[in-house]
């Protein structure tokens, strides 16, 4: 297990320049399959890495090779479903309105003692797990690791987050044990007045403009989670273009928070909260085709209005507000959720953040075992 842990620690973003051959370790049932493979692909063809990223220098130096094996497509969920599913506490339309009680302490947060506060035992000494050289927080206290996931409409942001959650085995865990959560910016569309709602129903409201979002609530929510507290966020209904009046989602403190949305890199203050920024890249034709299918099936739209909205608002706003934020990304993921290799690298990066926290706190390392058990992917080492 220790060997496996060491192998984990050298993958993803800590490639050595000397790594010219790749040991592929694949978990198959209870054992490991190990093999040595020659380089097959360079990291540049798998995912684009921003030149400003601390990752880029390491990647530039390496000829690291990666292998991947196609997986079955994951079940794809609607954005709202994902937002709800992430914390598992949706009180969405089909629920009975019962809210979950406060999240139980995570194994690594208790040191064997029960506490309701995820931030009680300051994790300043874990700063080494942050590859960007920053400590978990400015005051040395534990903070969640915030990851922003941007990209155009229907680029696959939700699907990428869903895959990350699945690969980390988070969807299989009891809700109170989950250490990674996903939140969608779709939950934060602001409340429209009557005139705006009328325009929205006619397909004449610009939901792709930054003003369509309740930015204040977004920031408050992020700061609440960073403080290790529970946040309650609205449930958005795309059919009525409004929040469900009596429903909300409880998001409980987690070690890693994925926040996905078309404009999550647009606002500087929000953008600066992210320790890792991902941009999901997909060509416009594919995105339009997927959006049409999704909006007709899941968002109660007519073809004509989807196309009008796309031409008048979605496309121009993408070019004006979303695409320019691609430059802020640390990692660009071409082909969205199809890009297993890129997603596996990100999963490894998250594991590198989570595993040391679990093992260095005197915890029974249950979470580490759970994460490893849930890892059906190749792991590259030396
Ligand atoms: N690789 C894929 N192949 C086919 N359909 C996909 C793929 N990825 C996403 N989709 C579909 O495209 C639509 C948009 O995907 P989603 O992940 O919700 O994107 P976003 O969150 O960026 O809007 C969804 O209906 C989803 O099922
Ligand atoms: O009431 C609404 C609110 C938003 N939209 C559209 O949603 C997308 C963003 O969601 P993705 O899941 O990233 O596609 C945005 O382009 C808005 O146009 C909407 O149609 N109606």
From TrEMBL:
GO molecular function: ATP binding; uridine kinase activity
Pathway: Pyrimidine metabolism; CTP biosynthesis via salvage pathway; CTP from cytidine: step 1/3; Pyrimidine metabolism; UMP biosynthesis via salvage pathway; UMP from uridine: step 1/1
UniProt-annotated stretches for the region Disordered: 361-382
Example of a GO biological process term: CTP salvage
Domain of life: Eukaryota
The keyword Chaperone is annotated on this UniProt entry: no
Record-linked Gene3D superfamilies: P-loop containing nucleotide triphosphate hydrolases
Alphabetical list of PANTHER family matching this protein: URIDINE KINASE (PTHR10285)
Similarity annotation: Belongs to the uridine kinase family.
Protein name in UniProt: uridine/cytidine kinase
Organism: Hypsibius exemplaris
